[in-house]
Design brief:
Elements: E1 7-9, H1 10-13, E2 25-28, H2 37-45, H3 52-70, H4 75-81, H5 87-98, H6 102-118
Parallel strand pairs: 1-2
Helix pairs in contact: 3-5, 3-6
């Protein structure tokens, strides 16, 4: 489950394999201290110029996309699993990032996959 904390370790920032089982800790160094502003710049280049908060949101929404297509968990359960405990905020953020509500995303993408499999 993603941490509700707003911290990301310097080592985790550059990884593309951050998932729900790897907490994201924003603003902390490997030693546990805060990441100085001067150190975030080289880290942020590895995250395609996202601010720390944008990066955390993007990782959470990418994980939610995977879970929507690979599990039968409810939208609320998926939101909680990726660290967004407020279902309304999760749905709003998901729609901002993907253009779909979580339910519509699941329906649209599962239908597309099923249609292609039938061909």
């Amino acid at each position: 489950m993603l941490s509700r904390s707003t911290a990301i370790s310097a080592g985790a920032v550059g990884r593309r394999d951050c998932t729900a089982d790897r907490p994201i800790l924003l603003g902390r160094s490997e030693a546990g201290g805060a990441v100085p502003a001067g150190e975030w710049k080289p880290i942020s280049s590895a995250t395609q110029g996202y601010t720390p908060a944008q990066y955390v949101q993007t990782v959470r929404i990418r994980e939610a996309e995977k879970l929507l297509l690979t599990t039968t968990q409810s939208v609320s359960q998926i939101g909680m699993q990726v660290g967004l405990d407020n279902p309304s905020y999760f749905a709003t953020l998901f729609k901002q990032k993907t253009g779909f509500t979580p339910t519509a995303y699941r329906q649209q993408h599962l239908t597309s996959v099923q249609n292609e499999a039938a061909r």
